[in-house]
Amino acid sequence: MDETRHVPSAGPGHETTDVNVWAVGKFMIGLAVVCLISLALLLVLVKFFQSEQANPQAVKVDPVTLFPQPRLQRTPALDLRAVRAEEDKLLNGYGWVDPQKGLVRIPIDQAIEVLAKRGMPTPKGQKK
Questions:
Q1: Rounded distance, CA 102 to CA 110, Å?
Q2: What are the beta bridge partners of residue 96?
Q3: Per-residue model confidence (pLDDT) at position 119
Q4: Would you call 8 helix, strand, or coil by DSSP?
Q5: Looking at the predicted structure, is the pLDDT value of residue 93 above 70?
Q6: I need a labelling partner for 98 at 20 to 30 A (CA). Which of 10, 58, 106, 113 fits?
């Protein structure tokens, strides 16, 4: 603000050059118009969504034909139970690992006991 052009009044009063009342009024009118337009658009959108929901008929979907591979598991609990049963069978049973070399698989509890009695085997080339 240029203080050299300010003419002091003779008596008490208020500053009339600080605020442009017409600009503030235009801003308030514009803000009110934008709020009313937003409210109208919001109401139209709500009516649209309500009309879409008025028909609650669900679309039947066949997931086998709709989703591409790889698909999610249909029964994850049963699949996990089957995997764990297979692991338990390997850990707790006897079986051949390599019949030509004579390698067999023994139960894990028995293998732990054998290792505790004999100790860990030393790799070739290392001294005990």
A1: 18
A2: 104
A3: 87
A4: coil
A5: yes
A6: 113
- The DSSP code for 109 is H
Q: Residue 95 forms beta bridges with which residues?
A: 105
CA distance 27 to 21: 10
Q: Which residue has the tokens 């600009």?
A: 23
| Alpha-carbon gap, residue 127 to 106, rounded angstroms | 28
- φ, ψ for residue 22, nearest 5 deg: -65, -40
Taking residue 33's Cβ as centre, other Cβ atoms within 10 Å add up to 10
93/90 Cα distance (integer angstroms): 6
Q: Using an 8 Å Cβ cutoff, are 71 and 63 in contact? A: yes
The predicted pLDDT at position 2 comes to: 55
Structure-token match 């600080």, residue found? 18
